[in-house]
Design a protein that fits this description.
The chain is α+β, with helices and mostly antiparallel strands. The protein has helices at residues 2-51, 83-90, 121-125, 153-167, 176-184, 200-203, 209-214; strands at residues 59-62, 65-70, 73-77, 104-108, 112-115, 171-172, 254-260, 269-270, 280-284, 301-305, 313-314, 318-319. Helix content is 30%, strand content 15%.
């Protein structure tokens, strides 16, 4: 018995050392396995982003609005460059880029319909007939085929609710993740046409030589070196679409998204909808007046209070599929 009492503490010590070693081993290899899994998920998202594209573009008209089918898939959301590198490349302040990273993997699990064009004045006036009927502006922004502007996030969501009620379907603003996924249309370049400023005038109505000659606003970045011919908003569909058939995803007017504004996480996420509460709503896409090369990127984010109205912000809508 005395011998056992002398030996038992040694056995306990050995068992403790063994258990600690086992825990360290499991933690070490667990972290390696988790890191490998995250790397695999990121690689998968990048490959899906490169290859995800409808075999045939599918377009439908619902309630007088043309829609394009956006397939499910995964992509890398945000910018792959740091704020410092983006500021060097595109100009402006570093702070303007800080919320675009970390770049992270996003999975869109279900396809959805997105309006081919931004909602026009004519379409919006079916809901609110008096909108911008009489304006004392030097520049025309209220043409029937121009995108609706001077609408708040509250106005845009009210339009979706009105359209849903009269059609027995669900219309809504896109989430920020859906918007960027649809804007990129399977690309990973800064814009859906590549990383070259030269073709910008073919794809987007931006603040370029045309706008600079008319307004010459002081700003921390240069106007785009293109001439698109439009001083203000252009009729929707005036520029080339992206690979999924969506027009004006960059330029013309910035577009409300459904999300509250929030910072990104590096984690892999599925169907993110943004924070549950906040102060400002997400705006995407840049516009005719505030979009030199720095804004004209698929990853560029803006935030605006939900009640604000501006001549540079409009929206496009999504139609949810049946459960």
């Amino acid at each position: 018995m005395e011998t056992f009492k002398r030996i038992s503490p040694v056995i306990v010590l050995i068992l403790q050392v063994f258990l600690i070693s086992l825990l360290v081993f499991r933690f070490h290899w667990g972290r390696r396995a988790e890191s490998a899994a995250n790397a695999a998920e990121t690689a998968q998202a990048m490959e899906l982003q490169r290859t995800t594209c409808p075999a045939t573009l599918i377009a439908m008209t619902f309630d007088g609005i043309e829609f394009v089918w956006i397939p499910p898939g995964s992509f890398m959301m945000g910018s792959g460059l740091s704020a410092e590198k983006l500021a060097v490349k595109y100009g402006g302040w570093e702070a303007a880029y800080e919320d675009e990273y970390p770049q992270h993997s996003v999975r869109i699990s279900r396809g959805f319909w997105m309006s081919k064009y931004e909602v026009t004045n004519a379409q919006y006036r079916k809901y609110k007939s008096s909108h911008l009927k009489e304006v004392d502006w030097q520049y025309i922004l209220n043409g029937d085929s121009q995108p609706v502007v001077e609408v708040s996030w509250n106005d845009a969501t009210a339009y979706c609710e009105w359209l849903s009620q009269r059609s027995n379907a669900i219309y809504r603003l896109p989430t920020e993740a859906e918007w960027e996924y649809a804007c990129r249309a399977g690309t990973s370049t800064p814009r859906y046409w590549g990383d070259d400023d030269a073709p910008m005038g073919l794809y987007a109505n931006v603040y370029d030589r045309t706008g600079e000659a008319e307004f010459n606003f002081p700003r921390p970045y240069a106007a785009a070196e293109t001439t698109d011919g439009y001083k203000v908003t252009a009729p929707v569909g005036s520029f080339e679409p992206n690979a999924w058939g969506l027009h004006d995803m960059i330029g013309n007017v910035s577009e409300w998204c459904g999300d509250w504004y929030g910072e990104y996480s590096a984690a892999w996420v599925t169907d993110p909808g943004g924070p549950v509460s906040g102060i400002e709503r997400i705006v995407r896409g840049a516009s005719w007046i505030d979009s030199g090369p720095t804004q004209c990127r698929s990853a560029k984010r803006e935030r605006v209070e939900a009640s604000d109205v501006m001549p540079l912000i409009g929206f496009r809508i999504c139609r949810s599929v049946d459960e």
